[in-house]
Structures are given as C-alpha cells and as structure tokens.
Amino acid sequence: MSNLKLGVDVVGAHNLLPKDGHGSSSAIVELHFDNQKFRTTIKEKDLNPVWNESFYFNISDPSNLHNLTLDAYIYNDVKSAHSRSFLGKVSLHGTSFVPHSDSVVLHYPLEKRGVFSRVRGELGLRVYTTDDPSIKSSTPIPAPEDIQSHAQPVQNSLPSKSKSEARHTFHHLPNSNHQYQQHNSAAGVVPNHVTKYGVDEMKSEPPPPQIVRMYSGSSAQPVDYSLKETSPFLGGGQVVGGRVIRSDRTASTYDLVERMQFLFVSVVKARDLPAMDITGSLDPYVEARIGNYKGITKHIEKQQNPAWNVVFAFSKERMQASVLEVRVKDKDLLKDDFVGLVRFDLNEVPTRVPPDSPLAPQWYRLEDKKGEKIKGELMLAVWIGTQADEAFPDAWHSDAATAIDSSAAASTLIRSKVYQAPRLWYVRVNVVEAQDLVPTEKNRFPDVYVKAQIGNQVTKTKNMHARTFNPMWNEDLLFVAAEPFEDHLILTVEDRVGPGKDEILGRVIIPLSIVEKRADDRTIHSRWFNLEKPVAVDVDQLKKDKFSSKLHLRLCLDGGYHVLDESTHYSSDLRPTAKQLWKPPIGVLELGVLNAVGLHPMKTRDGKGTSDTYCVAKYGHKWIRTRTIVDNLFPKYNEQYTWEVFDPATVLTVGVFDNSQLGGPNGKDLKIGKVRIRISTLETGRVYTHSYPLLVLHPSGVKKMGELHLAIRFSCTSLVNMMYIYSRPLLPKMHYVRPFTIMQLDMLRHQAVNIVAARLGRAEPPLRKEVVEYMSDVDSHLWSMRRSKANFSRLMSVFSGLFAIGKWFGDICLWKNPITTVLVHVLFIMLVCFPELILPTVFLYMFLIGIWNFRYRPKFPPHMNIKISHAEGAHPDELDEEFDTFPTSKSPDLVRMRYDRLRSVAGRIQTVVGDIATQGERLQSLLSWRDPRATALSVTFCLVAAIVLYVTPFQVVAGLAGIYAMRHPRFRYRLPSVPVNFFRRLPARTDCML
C-alpha cells in the first residue's frame, strides 16, 4: 500500500454566477480523484465563498499518477428543494501535481460542462503530493451516484461515480506519456535492445557535403562561411536528405552519432600486495598502458589491499599496440618501484554492447616483467565497447588527455557533464511604511529610505523627507533568487543626515524560505517586522523601552513569471517558475555532437599551435558539456544528449570553447564559436546533419574558427498539442497581467545570469562564468554601430516589398507594358464593381503564393550570416568601439560619461529598430515555410478565409469587424488574442545575427 497521498486545499471561489433567483448562490465543491469523492461545506448566499478546507486522497498507483485527473465541481446547493445546479468545474491533469514544498495557491477559471452551460468566476485550489505518514486520508463518501443527480441533504455524504463511468472519465484523456514512449520506440530513440557489431566494421565513403544557402541575392555570403549538408554514417544508418537509411543492424541508443570503439579497463581493487619499502609499507597505484597512452590512478598511502574503482577508456583509433599492460607501482619520492603487472592480448578482449549486462571484474594474479607469477592479485574488467556503455561518462578518456601521461585524478577538468541550472524566482518586496522611527538627532525629522539586499543585489527606495516619524513609500523592489535559497533578505532603514553621510536606524533579516509563494496576481497579506538596533545599547534602557520601530512589508516569491536569464530572441525556455503551471512536453529534441574540423589554434604547446576543445549546449534548465579533446584541431566527440521540448518558439544554443584550465586555474576559457537553432524551424522526425561554420567577431573583423558537425532531430509526441501551443501567449500570464518595465527586465536579467553562472561555476568540473555569459548573450543589449547598421538594413529589407509594389504601380501608370496595364485596369474595374471579391482574391493569392513557396522551403536550420550581421565590411573604428570596455577607457572623465550615455541610449534605439524588423520578418515568414507548421496553419487559414469571405457579403464582414474592433472594454480579455499569439511565435532573422 502506497503512503503517497494527494492533498487538495480548497481555498475559495470568486465572482460565481447567481443561481438561486435572488442574486446569490449557496456554493459547495465536490472533488473527484482516483474513484474517490469528497465535498466541502455549503456556504450560504455567498458569491465569493471562502472554505480553507483540506482533503487527502489515497493514490492507489503512484506510477500512474500522471494519467489521473482531479476534477473539482462547484454546485449551487438548494437544501429546501433537495436539488443543486451546476456553477462550473476545474480539471487538473496529473502532470501538474507537485510536492508540497513546490505548491502554491492557484485561482483557476471555471470551465463549462456542456456547450450551452453558462459559468463565470474562479476557484482557488492548492494541489500537492505528500508522503507524510502523520497525514491520514479523508473518509470518502460511500453512496455511489451520478454527479449530475440530486444531492442528499446530509452534510457529509456525497454521491460517487460508478466504476464504469470512472473508467470512461480517464479513458478519453490523452495519455501523453504513452504516446511519447510509442513514438520514441518507433523512431529508435530509446530502443529496448542493441545489436552487436564487429570491431573493425568497414564503412563506405560518405558523399561529399553539399553547400546550402538560406537567402539569395545580397544576403548570400561566401562559400567558406556557408552551411554544409552532410550524409554521415551514424548509429542508426546513413543519413541522406534528412532521412535515415537503415543498415542491416538494429539502431542503437546513440543513433545520432558515429559509433566509436573504446577499450575499457575497470581497475577495482587489489589484495595481498607485497611490501616494497624497508619499513614494510606500500603506497600503490595502477598504471594502464597501451602503446604511447597510459592512465594512472591516484596512489593510496600505506595500503596493501587498496581500492580504486576507476575506469579507463582508450580510443581504438589511436591505439598503436596489440597488448594492454596494467601495472601496479609503489609511489616513491625518487623513483616509483615496480610491483607487478597483468597483460591482455587485444584479440582476446570480449566485446560488450548494452543492454548486455556489465562485464564482471575478475581477480588476476600479478606477474613480474619476465612473466612469472608473484604475490598479490588485481581485480580487473577489460572489454571493448562504445559510447553507449554505462561506464563511458565517468571514464578517463585517452582522447581527452596527452599521449605522454595523464592521471585519472585530474580528469574532472576534461570529463563530460550534465548540469541542471537552478530554478529562479522573482522576489517582490513592497515597502509600505515605517513606524515610530527614532533618529539620532531629536531636533530634526529624518530623511529616510529603505535599502534592500539579497546576496550581491542591492536596491533602495526613494528618499522620504516628511514632517513625520512614520514615513510611507509603497514601492516595489525586485530581486532574483535561486533554489535552494542561500541568501537572506536584509532590509535597513537609513537616515541621510548629510551629503554622503547615512545613519542606520534599524535592520531586519528575513530568510527567503519563509516568504510566501504565489503563482498569480492575488493580493499578498502585509506583515509588520520589528527593526533591530544596528549597534549594542544599554540593556537596562532596552527593558525600559516598551516599543521598537517597525517596518510594514508585503513579501512574495512570484512564481507566475518566467525568469529571463537569456536574450529574449534566443530563449530556450518560456515556462513559469511555479511547477504547477507547467504543461506536459510536446516533443523531444535530440542532439548529436559529432566532430569539429579545421579549428583555429588557440594556444601554443611544444612550439606548435593547438587547442583543447569542448562543446557546451544549453536548452531550458539543462546544460551539457562534452569531454575535452586535448591537443587536437580535428576533435571527434560523438556524444548524444536529449531534452524535453515544451514550446517550439525556443532556441538551442551550442558553443565550442578552448579549455584553458589544463595549464593552470588562472586562465579564461576562450570562445571558438557558437550555433543557434530554433526548434520551430525543424521538421518533425527529420535528422539534420550539417556542418556549421564557427564565426566569431574579433577587433580585426569576422573570423572563421572552424566548423562544427551536428546531428539534430526533433520528435513530436502530439501534433495537436503542438499546434495548440501556437495560439497560446508566448510568456506566462503574469507577464501581461503585471508586466515589468524594460529597465526592470534588463536589471533582473543581469542578476539572473550572474546567479546561474555562480551556481554552475560551483559544479565539478565547473562551467565557468565566461562560458555562461557567452552562451546567454549577456552583452547583446550594448551599443554597437555594426549592429545598428545591420538592424537598419533588416528594416529596409522588410519594406523593400512595399517599395517594389510602388515601383510596379508607377510602371503601370506609365504604360511601360501596355498588356499588363490593360489587365490591371480590367481587374481594378471588376473589383470596383464587385467589392466583395477584394478580400477573397487577396487571401486566395496569399494561399497560392504560400503553396508556390512550398517548393522552395528551407530544408536546413538557420545559421549565422555575416552579410546580414554587417560583419564583413565593418569599419575598424566601429569594431574598436564595439570591443571597447564598458565603461570606456578611451577618454577623460567627462567624455567617458557622455560616451557611455550615448552607447546606452543607442543600445535602446538599436533594440527598438531590431524589434520593428522582427515584426516585419515574422510577417514575411507566414508564407515562406521557415516554420513549416505555422505556414501550414497560415495557408490553411487563407484558404478557409477565402471561401468564407466569398460566400459572406462584404458589408456583413466589414460591419462585424468594425463592431468587434470598437467593442466595450468589458468584453476585452487581458491576455493577447490568438492571432497575436500566433504572430509572436513566428521565426525571424534574429537567429542569423552575430
């Protein structure tokens, strides 16, 4: 019997529909879950009832929780007539159930039960799971009865559905998890078996890469900077034109990367090792050597039965020997002593591919250099496998170390890693007022303000200079905090007694863990906090004082927002902070990091240029880092990663960096380049295998640093759900109900990036701050003459179509082509005589243009374009300005101040111009098949609109449109409309901007 329970706190309802004929209702709430039913008490004659009652359901099968539904029905209960009428319902899917610590009160709009039912209002619920054994389940109502039947007058008895009806209730709900598993099985994402294959399997030569272009005309860039489509042989077979041609063997789990052969050596422990020193002690370590490569474990002091539990992975591509030697040595100050060894012939090493069980380690007797058995045994396991092996992520890799020597103890700096970014919250501090302030000087009124601090974030209210000791501010202060909450909120009330001289009147320290969480815009109850004296005072005096100064605050953790920690153009996640508001995923994104070619040397080692590179990819809360390939300008990674996708209007970012920590901890990891891919531009189920140029802007100009070869696949679990997403607001509801200003968003984003960088920098291996900032485009808002010119060119390109129409109409007026002019005259007279044909003709033309453009739809993800970015012909002085420090270091103080102000203002203008261009480009993408799903919806709408407008009188359409545009504010909804939401999700050329 499971101890897991579902807790439901019924808080209250708001603005219910009157149903008793006297302008009121007597509301009661029924809860249905897992064949159990509970109900609240009846609130007589109240359209805004408050219950604050808690119920606990037994969860019969916790593994099936995500398939269950909680239904809350509100009825108007009429005791005298023994009847009730429907007021509304709320249905919550199991995917939104979260633990008690993550739960918040949410006010859900009431839903209709049928097409003709009428409801209004909201129901406040807090829903959570708990395994607290002290909480007992509520007693369910025993009497079975249909939910639409009459209620019994007894207060605590409630009808319940029959089992067959309950089964029907859950059967019609979409099982997204089951669909997800089915799709992945079909696509080869997570197969249940993997076929073994030969070690030296032969491969035919793949065809040469093909260059593909995104834009024609002036936007076309040099061939060397273009995207190249490839047809590599991956784990699932050869990829040709985005489709996988299956090979004879079954696809492996790693079907988006090339299979790499590794010799795995698992060093477990040793026993009965002989003493080597005069004192009888032994400091053993193990050295696994094959050819020029060797891996070394850490030494264990004074231990004849040591344990290491280390795995070495030697790349078969670099092997130059056929014998593996595993040596046990004794660590010494001058020269390490040889203890014994075990030899393996590679021709006799077994091959193991998951899901085969791991190879069991065995005891091997140590031999001396002559091959004779000596004292001591070593427990080992040796096998040949691929990167699909469970030991691969934590193994020491020979291709990630130098050929001369490397230690497994230092391999943390070069190991692959998956990071989870912290969950971020907005902290809202509403400073209302202070009471009974006691200034140090009794003969003056204080000039006070409140300073608030969380970690390194500091902000303050405006100064309040009034003839009172009870100043009032009513100001909102905003911060960003990350779970788990480590910093406290510190509030100090300070008095400005003179220029540059402030005195603290009191302080209060509030742990963030006690601050209330909310997921909507409900009012937070205010609290009074006692201000502590900043310095020690006489104890007797404190006893005499019966009062203390107080501070009136409203505090909350706003979970209804998405905390923006990256550029809004390249957001990888748009979900709110509160987990209860999360929707089920709509698909799965798979990334295979194959290899890089022609990398630019980033350092010098042994007199030659080289690089120690690794890749970082970020999407949502999940960051990944591949292993570092040392001393290689053509590294092969072949690592595959997976993300859940919740919104197609998001961007995957992949960056390549040079690891500067191998030579010492003081160097910064250098950026080599990055790639951005918008999910909505990917066709479902297609495998994209392209070689992306790594373009970086330097003070000397744009430079190609190499090419990164990726394999990408987006798999959709539910096409209907994904199409529905296009009609939803881009950001959570709170961004529209209580929006932030541009200044606030910029400040909060800067704080969020710093918090994410600090948390990821504490991992092992650390993801350094310069990496996080480069991946998050932290400096995208700063002024740049080059970006401003590029955005202006984008703007002109958007309006170029209007200019072309104007020129064409001028040519018509000038009769340059008489036949065309006559046809236009005929069309114009026909439309004047039959105005109802104007709109159908326009939409029909748009439909035909969209269908025509289907032939020329892009078949590859967008990539960075140096011509669109105005990077190729940028003036050296403009680049010098762009790479200048902020604040500038080029001029004296006065010029520096003006220069910084100019850059800041120009940065705003640059953003506005870019946003205008983005809107125009989204309009262009309606029919360009840049986003195949959006264009399919668009052309379908155009066809339907053409037909509807054809059969509907134009006067009716125009009249309805005018009435709708001028409708009363009461009939307006605060969230954006469906067409606006659809339009904001369309892709623009921001993905191609450097």
UniProtKB/TrEMBL annotation:
<feature type="compositionally biased region" description="Polar residues">
    <location>
        <begin position="131"/>
        <end position="140"/>
    </location>
</feature>
<comment type="function">
    <text>May function as a signaling molecule by regulating the trafficking of other regulators.</text>
</comment>
<feature type="transmembrane region" description="Helical">
    <location>
        <begin position="708"/>
        <end position="726"/>
    </location>
</feature>
<feature type="transmembrane region" description="Helical">
    <location>
        <begin position="792"/>
        <end position="810"/>
    </location>
</feature>
<keyword id="KW-0472">Membrane</keyword>
<keyword id="KW-0106">Calcium</keyword>
<protein>
    <recommendedName>
        <fullName>C2 domain-containing protein</fullName>
    </recommendedName>
</protein>
<comment type="similarity">
    <text>Belongs to the MCTP family.</text>
</comment>
<feature type="domain" description="C2">
    <location>
        <begin position="405"/>
        <end position="529"/>
    </location>
</feature>
<dbReference type="InterPro" id="IPR035892">
    <property type="entry name" value="C2_domain_sf"/>
</dbReference>
<keyword id="KW-0812">Transmembrane</keyword>
<dbReference type="InterPro" id="IPR047258">
    <property type="entry name" value="C2C_MCTP_PRT_plant"/>
</dbReference>
<dbReference type="InterPro" id="IPR047257">
    <property type="entry name" value="C2B_MCTP_PRT_plant"/>
</dbReference>
<dbReference type="InterPro" id="IPR047259">
    <property type="entry name" value="QUIRKY-like"/>
</dbReference>
<dbReference type="InterPro" id="IPR000008">
    <property type="entry name" value="C2_dom"/>
</dbReference>
<dbReference type="Pfam" id="PF00168">
    <property type="entry name" value="C2"/>
</dbReference>
<dbReference type="GO" id="GO:0016020">
    <property type="term" value="C:membrane"/>
</dbReference>
<dbReference type="InterPro" id="IPR013583">
    <property type="entry name" value="MCTP_C"/>
</dbReference>
<feature type="compositionally biased region" description="Polar residues">
    <location>
        <begin position="149"/>
        <end position="161"/>
    </location>
</feature>
<feature type="domain" description="C2">
    <location>
        <begin position="1"/>
        <end position="108"/>
    </location>
</feature>
<feature type="domain" description="C2">
    <location>
        <begin position="244"/>
        <end position="364"/>
    </location>
</feature>
<keyword id="KW-1133">Transmembrane helix</keyword>
<feature type="transmembrane region" description="Helical">
    <location>
        <begin position="822"/>
        <end position="854"/>
    </location>
</feature>
<keyword id="KW-0677">Repeat</keyword>
<dbReference type="InterPro" id="IPR047255">
    <property type="entry name" value="C2D_MCTP_PRT_plant"/>
</dbReference>
<feature type="region of interest" description="Disordered">
    <location>
        <begin position="131"/>
        <end position="167"/>
    </location>
</feature>
<feature type="domain" description="C2">
    <location>
        <begin position="570"/>
        <end position="692"/>
    </location>
</feature>
<feature type="transmembrane region" description="Helical">
    <location>
        <begin position="936"/>
        <end position="966"/>
    </location>
</feature>
<dbReference type="Pfam" id="PF08372">
    <property type="entry name" value="PRT_C"/>
</dbReference>
